[in-house]
Design brief:
single chain; mainly beta; Immunoglobulin-like; six-stranded mixed β-sheet; five-stranded antiparallel β-sheet; 17 strands; 0% helix; 47% strand
Length: 187
C-alpha cells in the first residue's frame, strides 16, 4: 500500500476490510492491521508492506496539524487483478535535459491516472506527477493533473547523470494495475 505523506504528517496507520464486497466508504468495515510503514524515494513516499493474498479494501490514516486524515480507499485486487510488472512498456526518448516518457497501457485495466516519478541515482524523488495521458515530458506540466513536488525553482536534471523513471498506472478504485521502472542517462 503506497501513500504520499503530506508535509508534517505523523502516526501513519493502516486499516483493511475482512473482504471484498463492502461499502468502501463505511469506515466501520475496517480493522487496523499493525504493520510499520517503510520509506520509498528516501521518505518522500511511504508504503505499508502487505502479505495477505485475499481481495479486500484498505485505507491509510495519518495525523497532521492535530487532525486525523483518511486517504481514499484502495481496492486490493490480488486474486483477480494482480499488479503487472511492465518496464518493457515504457519508452524514454532522451531529449537533452527534458526527456520524453511514453508508455503503453493495458486496455483491460481501465486506468484513470498514471503516477510518474523521476528519481536520482540516490533514489531521491526529483519529480512526482499524475497525468491521464500516456506520455509526459520532463518538466512540462501542461498535461499534469496533480504535481506532488510543486517547488520553486522547478526541478531540473543534471548533465551526464543517471536517473530512474517509475510509472504506476492506477484504476478508478486506486489499485496500482501496472508498475514499471526504467533507468536513463542524460547527455
Amino acid at each position: 500500500m503506497f501513500f504520499y505523506p503530506v508535509e508534517g504528517a505523523t502516526n501513519f496507520r493502516y486499516f483493511e476490510s475482512a473482504g471484498n464486497n463492502i461499502n468502501e466508504w463505511d469506515y466501520a468495515q475496517y480493522q487496523e492491521v499493525i504493520v510499520t510503514s517503510v520509506p520509498v524515494f528516501n521518505g518522500y513516499l511511504r508504503r505499508f508492506p502487505l502479505k495477505k493474498a485475499n481481495n479486500r479494501w484498505g485505507i491509510v490514516t495519518y495525523e497532521v496539524n492535530g487532525k486525523t486524515r483518511i486517504c481514499d480507499p484502495v481496492h486490493i485486487k490480488v486474486d483477480f487483478q494482480q499488479t503487472v510488472w511492465s518496464p518493457n512498456r515504457i519508452t524514454i526518448t532522451e531529449i537533452g535535459l527534458t526527456p520524453e516518457f511514453k508508455w503503453q497501457p493495458y486496455p483491460i485495466f481501465e486506468n484513470v491516472i498514471h503516477f510518474n516519478v523521476v528519481s536520482d541515482s540516490n533514489k531521491n524523488l526529483i519529480s512526482g506527477t499524475y497525468t491521464a495521458d500516456t506520455n509526459w515530458n520532463f518538466y512540462d506540466l501542461s498535461n499534469v493533473t496533480l504535481n506532488i513536488r510543486d517547488v520553486n525553482p522547478v526541478p531540473s536534471l543534471d548533465s551526464n547523470s543517471t536517473y530512474t523513471f517509475t510509472l504506476m498506472s492506477v484504476s478508478d478504485d486506486n489499485w496500482v494495475t501496472t508498475f514499471g521502472q526504467k533507468e536513463f542517462k542524460t547527455p
